[in-house]
Structure formats: structure tokens, C-alpha cells
Amino acid sequence: MIDITILITLSYLIINITKNKNKCRCMMANKKNQQNHRNNHRRSMQRRWSAAKYREKKVKSQAHSSTENCDKLEGSRIINLDKLQQYVNELTTHAAKCGSQIILSGEQKSGLASIISSHCSKCSFIIPLTTSNKVSGPKGISRWEINLAAVWGQMCTGGGHSKLKDNMSILGVPVMSPKNFINTERSIGQWWQNQLQDEMKEARQKEKRLAIQRGDYHEGVPAITVIVDAGWSKQSHKHTYNAKSGVGVIIGKETGKILFIGVRNKYCTACSRGISKDKHHCFKNWNDSSSQMESDIILEGFCQAEEVHGVRYVQFIGDGDSSVYPTLLQQVPGWGRYIEKLECANHSCKCYRSALEKLVQEKPHYKGKGGLTGAMRQRLTSAARCAIRMRSQETDVKKAVKKLKQDLKNGPFHCFGVHTKCSPDFCQKAKEKLSEEHQESIGNEDVCEEFSDLIEGTCN
Ligand SMILES: [Zn+2]
Ligand SMILES: [Zn+2]
Ligand SMILES: [Zn+2]
Question: DSSP assignment, residue 426?
């Protein structure tokens, strides 16, 4: 404690001595030149005083020009509330100490984020306001959170740089350059892809674990049931299969999560403009017909299953009219021929409805009151869906399949009011044992017979 006190006293003395030394430099001059020195000293003091005045003037003019800059700060900004609170804390602490006004004096923009500088009008102390947090991207490059969020939003809603610019310019908020937008977009895309790969890996491991727990193996390899489906960038309406882009997915039945995803693109904007492959990130990876995209993607997923992930997709649920099944049977090496296809209830009902629509188009006399009206076609489809749902809950699968076949064939009779063969499981009329004498059949027996044939086809 004493040592510190001595040190402080000593340093204080040293400072004072130095000061005195500066002050009394002229006094040490010889007596003869004292007058000259006095004059010189006055002149030097005058010079110092004017320099000090000049400096003061400069600071004032700087402050003035800063206030002018402040006028140029215009429009709106999106500010993170935590950052704003930090700034308010700093600002109020300084203002309380200095007792002066804080003025916004400049801005360094980076897309939607910016660092707004403000200074104290009395002591020129600078307090910056950073409007956003910074986060680390997939390659470790740190980016402004607000810029990432803005680009992310555009990617989710199908917009781009120009849409963001249009929206933001109406709000008066500045946006990033197109180049910065594209870089951010790529960064987010990479991050999404990494995240997706991790999620799919986890889902595959879970499906495998569940198969082992159930004891489901095929030739000693854990075997699972998957759902496969595809989508295109353009609706085919069952005749024009010329979409430029298609996506296919394999979903685990137990987890309901995606195990594999593939994309095929026939078109690349940059390539169509003649930009060479090494100068752009090319997404074109398909030259065959659009209708083969689905089979190719699903085949790729099935081929990877055992080799990479150690599972076999021995059963798959897919849509009725897809060409995937024959491709899998022929081209999945080794266990491909054991793959079984299960009909998807949704697709079966869709096919049933399409067949009904086709029927009334070909035979228009079935339409009209008491016949195949729009409401009746809807009712027939709902009845089929209801039967599938009910029978799928039964434990004895073999019996359930038999019953379902009967229910589906009987569906049209039930809908047209003939309840003789209805199952009391879901027909109220059959339950009440109301017989056909109440039903004045409308002469649609032949229509019902025709449906039965139609359903027979769907069942098989
Ligand atoms: Zn101040
Ligand atoms: Zn390209
Ligand atoms: Zn009935």
C-alpha cells in the first residue's frame, strides 16, 4: 500500500516536473538575451494559442459537418432489440456523464445491416449502433443475421433479389447488392443441404434400429418398408410429361421421415445463355425424358440402401400407375427381385375417381338425377376410402383383405340404396336389417355391375 502511494506521488512529481521544465525553458536563458527570449516566448505563446483556436474551430466544423451527414441518414432500418438496448445503455451512461446531446453522424451499410455512428456534441465521443448480430455460416464465414434472414425468406417464398429490393425500397430499407445476395443464397443452400443430410442419416439409423427391434430381416440384412413418390415442376395432367425438373423421395414408413431425396434437372438458365460449365454452378443433370426421372431417382436411392446404409427396402408403397416397380425389380442388384409393391390407399382412391370420371365421359347417359352425378362420384370414392380405412385397422390381415374386396365391390350398391350385401360393420341400413323392399331401385343395376368390374380391376 505504501509502495503504491509512493509510486503515485513520484509519478505525480515527475509529471509536474516535466510540466515545469516545459514552462521554464526560457527562464534558463542567459540574462543578456532575456528580453529577446521574452519576445520569442510571447510570439511562441501566440502561435500556440492560435493553433489551439484552430484545432477548436476544426472540431466544431467537423461536428457541424457530421450533423450535416446526419441529415443524409434517411429511410428506415431493421434493428435487433438487444443491440438497441446495448446502445441505449451506452448512450444514457455517456449523456448522464457529459450532459450533452448525442447526434447520429454516419453509417456503414452492409445490406440490411448497418453500423450507425453517433457522437457526443460536447466531447465528440463516438458511440456506434450495430443493427444486427453476426452469425457463423457453414464455411465459418460470419454473416449478418438480418441479411441471412432476408435471403432465407426469399428462398422460402420463391422470390429473389429483385423482389426483396422491391419490398424493401417501399419500406425505405436499404438492401444488399445482387452479388452479395447470391453468395448468401449459396451459403444458406449449403447449410440446408448439410442439415438435410444429417437428418436423413439419423432417420435411416432409426428405421434400421426399429427393423432390428421387430426382427425384420431379409437374408440377414435389416429390412424396412418405404413410401416412394415424386413431384414435377409442371403438372402433367396425365398426358404431357415434359417438366424440366423433378424431385423424388423415399420416406421411411415407421418414422415418416425422408431417407433419400434426388433431383433431376433438364434445364439450366446459365447453360442456355451460353455460359461455359466452368464459369457457373450448373444444376443440369438429366438429358432423358421427364417421365423417367422418378424411376431413376428412386432406383438411385434403392441402390444405395444396402451398400451405404446397411438396410434393404423390401416393401414399398407407391402410386398405382408408376413405372418405378419394374425398374426396381430389374435393376436393383441382388435383392431387387424380392421387392414387393404395396398400393397406396390415396393413390388407389385417386385412380378409382379418375376411372369414374372416364366412365361418365365415355357414357354420358349415366349422368343426371339418380345416376352418376358429381356428388355420387364423390360419395362412391368416399365409401371406398372408408372401407380401406376400416379394414386396415383389423388384425387378421387375410380376413381383412377378403372383406375389403367384398366391401369395394358392394360400394356402388350401397351408394345407390341396395343394402342386401352390405356389411353391418359400417352400413347403418344393414345393421337395422332394412331389406330391399324399401329401396326402389332406380334401374341402375347395370351401372352397379359395371362398377363392380371396374373395382375388380382396381382390387387386382
Ligand atoms: Zn461527451
Ligand atoms: Zn448450367
Ligand atoms: Zn349399405
Answer: T
Q: What is the pLDDT of residue 389?
A: 87
Residue 4 has pLDDT above 70, yes or no: no
Q: Name the residue ranges covered by the structural domains of the chain.
A: 4-67, 73-176, 216-343, 348-459
108-164 residue pLDDT tens: 999 999 999 999 999 989 999 999 999 886 667 888 999 999 999 999 999 999 999
Rounded CA gap, 288 and 266, in Å?
A: 8
Please report, as a single letter, which amino acid is at residue 29: A
* CATH, domain range 216-343: 3.30.420
Spacing, Cα 162 to ligand 2 middle (Å): 22
CA distances for 238 relative to 231, 359, 361, 369, angstroms: 13, 16, 16, 29
Q: Which amino acid is at 99?
A: G
Question: Rounded mean pLDDT of 230-258?
Answer: 84
- Find residue 242's DSSP bridge partners: none
CA distance 157 to 373: 39
Task: Name the more confident of 59 and 193.
Answer: 193
Q: Helix, strand, or coil here: 253?
A: coil
Contact status, residue 68 vs residue 104, Cβ threshold 8 Å: no
- In one-letter notation, the amino acid at residue 77 is R
Cα(258) to ligand 3 centroid in Å equals 40
Residue 229 contacts residue 324 (beta carbons within 8 Å): no
CA atoms within 13 A on the CB side of 424: 6
Residue with cell 390381415: 397
Cβ burial of 422 (10 Å; 0-12, 13-18, 19+) is: buried
- In this structure, what C-alpha cell is assigned to residue 399? 380376413
Greater pLDDT, 137 or 209: 209
Question: 131 CA to middle of ligand 2, Å?
Answer: 38
Residue with cell 381383412: 400
pTM value? Answer: 0.61
Note the ligand closest to the C-alpha atom of 102. Answer: 1
Q: Which of 406, 417, 407 is nearest to 445 (CA)?
A: 417
Question: Radius of gyration (Cα) for the chain, nearest Å?
Answer: 40
Q: How many angstroms does the Cα of residue 417 sit away from the middle of ligand 3?
A: 7
Does residue 147 contact residue 110 with C-beta atoms inside 8 Å?
Answer: yes
Backbone angles phi, psi at 110, to 5 degrees: -145, 85
In the predicted structure, residue 51 carries a pLDDT above the cut 70: no
Kindly state the cell numbers that stand for 54. Answer: 484552430
